[in-house]
């Protein structure tokens, strides 16, 4: 299947005077790449990576140009026009990106940068943008662990810091204390999960978990064992949810601390338990 609004690797099926038709064996579909976008020396049978979208006449078309964002991504884009139906954003392609009025959290104005999420609209069968970004984000963070690295974009200032979208999927907060020089809206940062809230939002930090965290955790585990008659029903195979709930860290960090204690001959393992030596 050819995915509109995304990059596709397609095969050149045939060359024509005005370009080439591309497709894949799975879908049986084909799509035109205009001649001006055809790489020099393109021949039948070649595989080529292209971006697929609909042109001004709503025809599906391929291009080798790079858009500023694709379906499933968030971005700040310039508002360049308004009509009776909505706003139009510059996303780096000849056809501007449409934002219906119903998808604007406030009336967009020409000249501003709008924070939007790109999605494929089944009704119009084209890519649109929505400024109601939070409606597109996930609340299920069950697969995320403290310490996980992500890339995120800052979109709004908060009294305690800055709101972000990380991995184009999750709502996050990064605090002012992380910065020596305050960021700006649109900044893209590499961050690490510091805490996971009950409401599905994340607290993130610029800094990976420090080795001191492991040292403190090793001491905590020893204290925990001493207070539990030298045995606890947790080991390196315990679930991430159990480890997070009991020790407040990711399973990866917990396993690393247990491994260090084992090498130091402080603990041993048997039947899913950890025993203090």
UniProtKB/TrEMBL annotation:
| Signal sequence, renumbered to the chain | none
* InterPro entries reported for this sequence: CvfB_fam, CvfB_S1_st, CvfB_WH, NA-bd_OB-fold, WH-like_DNA-bd_sf
Q: Which residues form the Conserved virulence factor B first S1 domain?
A: 4-64
Q: Where is the Conserved virulence factor B-like winged helix domain?
A: 221-276
Pfam families named among the record's database cross-references: S1_2 (PF13509), WHD_CvfB (PF17783)
Name the protein family: Belongs to the CvfB family.
Q: What is the protein name given in its UniProt record?
A: S1-like domain-containing RNA-binding protein
Species: Lentisphaera profundi
